[in-house]
Write a structure and sequence with these properties.
Helix 1 packs antiparallel against helix 5 and helix 2 packs antiparallel against helix 3. The chain has a single domain, classed as de novo design (two linked rop proteins), CATH 1.20.1440. It is 81% helix and 0% strand. The protein is rod-shaped and about 95 Å long. The chain is mainly alpha-helical. The protein is built from seven helices and no strands.
Amino acid sequence: MLLIVELFVFLLIVLVLFIFYIIFIYNSLVRLKNNITKAWSNIEVLLKQRYDELPKLIDTVKGYTIHEKSVLTDLIKIRSDYKGAKDIHDIAEINDKTDDLIKKSFLVFEKYPDLKADGNFLKLQKRISEIENMISDRREYYNDVVTIYNTRIEQIPYNLIANSLKYKPKDLFVANDSEKKNIRI
């Protein structure tokens, strides 16, 4: 009889430890999922700030760059494209175009000595460069969290709980075509 009681207590302890382990796995997956949401929200805030700066940049350079209408038109189009973006792939594509266009814009604007000396332009150029750096940092953090999450939901025993919760892999936020070729999702 004592042996049966000891066996029962042992099994009860194992069951309790197993339940706590399942809870630990579940909570870590939820934490990762929430970190992805938080990281993406931080990126969206910075992208919105960048696209809010574009009209100021356009207004500042309009008078100087009459001959560079295509650059201004492209800046306006990209801003409206961003507002219509539906998912991370659309946003990543618009982000690539915006990065290229901003670099191109700053090179074009270098042709105009008066513009280079304009205080508003210099402030906007500095602000947009700061935002670009912050986006890059946040994108790196987001991709780190997504990579950890994607790895976990494929590992045993995490995958058992992730599958029962219908957790799916998340896409990385890649910055250019060369990075996209190296990513498997």
